[in-house]
Structure formats: C-alpha cells, structure tokens
Here is the input.
Amino acid sequence: MDKLRLRSAVEAARASMPEEERHAASVRTRENLLEQPWVQMAGLVACYWSAGTEPATHGLVFALWKHGATVILPVLRDDDDLDWAVYDGPDTLAPGRFGIMEPVDTRRGVDTVRTASLVIVPALAVDRSTGIRLGRGGGSYDRALARVGPNVPTVALLHDGELLEGVPAEPHDVPVRYVAQPGGITRVVAGRVQ
Ligand SMILES: Nc1ncnc2c1ncn2[C@@H]1O[C@H](COP(=O)(O)OP(=O)(O)OP(=O)(O)O)[C@@H](O)[C@H]1O
Ligand SMILES: [Mg+2]
Here is the structure.
C-alpha cells in the first residue's frame, strides 16, 4: 500500500473510533509511558499537542510538566520544519498554522530538539520491524527526528492496530525506537537505548 492510501485507511479507522474509546486509549498509553524509568527520568521532553483523532497527549504533557520535566512543543514553520517552544501550563497555548495549538513562549530554534532526553512524536502507523513511521505528509517530524542523537528514546504514539508489517518508506523517513499504545510499550528497533 502506498503512503496516501495507508494514511486514508488509518484516518478512517481513527474517525470511526468512539470518542470514549479514544479517550480511554490515551489514558492507558499515558500510564504505560509514565511507568517507564526513562520517561520518569527525562528532564527535557519534546512532545506534541494532539488534535482531532490523534492519540491524545494533553494529559501526558500536563503530567510530565507537573512532575517537573521541561516540555517543549512544536511550532510549525512556514517551510514545514519544526521550531520548538516551552510548554508552561494549559493557558500558554494559542492556535498556530492549521489551528494546531502551540506554545506562545519564545521560539527556541529547530535545533532545540537535539537537547531533549525523550522525544514523543505523532504517527499514523509504524513498521514493527524497522520502526519507520508514517506521518501526515509534511515531513516535519522526519526533519526533527533526524536531529535527535542515537541514545535518545524516540517514541511514536499509536492506537491499537497501527503497528504494522510493511509501512511504505522513502529514503528521508526516520525510524522511531519505541511505540507506545494502550496495550504497552514496544521497542521496535534494536538500538543503543536500554
Ligand atoms: N529533511 C527534509 N528536508 C526537507 N524536506 C523533507 C525532509 N524530510 C522529508 N521532507 C519532505 O517532506 C515530504 C513529506 O514526507 P513524508 O511523506 O515522509 O511525511 P511524513 O513522514 O508522513 O510527515 P511527518 O514527518 O510530518 O509526520 C516529502 O516531500 C519529503 O521530501
Ligand atoms: Mg516520513
């Protein structure tokens, strides 16, 4: 299946999930993540502010922030690359391009993601044998993930059934090292992270 068709199939499946089910899934995924020592110990966490039917992150971002982590969220640039700004509570967000909520804080630059000790990204699907992720088609997270060092855990959040065999990939696609789902955390690539 090509990228466009797989995107439509996953988007359609997400749209057909009842709202309560999506919410319950996000709570379980959040709990799975917050149990991990490498999540608890992360001082600077790059995450995303979910919209629509994406695996929800609002509770996760709030919990990480409450636990004392510094959380940075993407600010979408005109060239589709991601700048980053610090989350400082639910009142510090405003709609950016495409209406996605972004921190109003100072932009720290595209290279800020290099300093994160944990990177959490959205995806529509991930390939269980390669970690290659399918996003929504901007290449924004491919650019961000390309800046992340080899020892940093990179995690895509997925609903059930979105960790697949054979996700279409192009040379610029950057794999993730973990997938977080309601059923648990899967380490998808044998990397250097323990
Ligand atoms: N490092 C890069 N610099 C410039 N453009 C890039 C880069 N990486 C990917 N792109 C471009 O982004 C476009 C979309 O890529 P792709 O289909 O992989 O998006 P995606 O992975 O689904 O989206 P995202 O990464 O935002 O979740 C492609 O045309 C690709 O050339
Ligand atoms: Mg890609």
Q: What stands out?
A: The two ends are 33 Å apart (CA to CA). Residues 135, 139, 142, 173 surround magnesium ion (ligand 2) (CB under 6 Å).
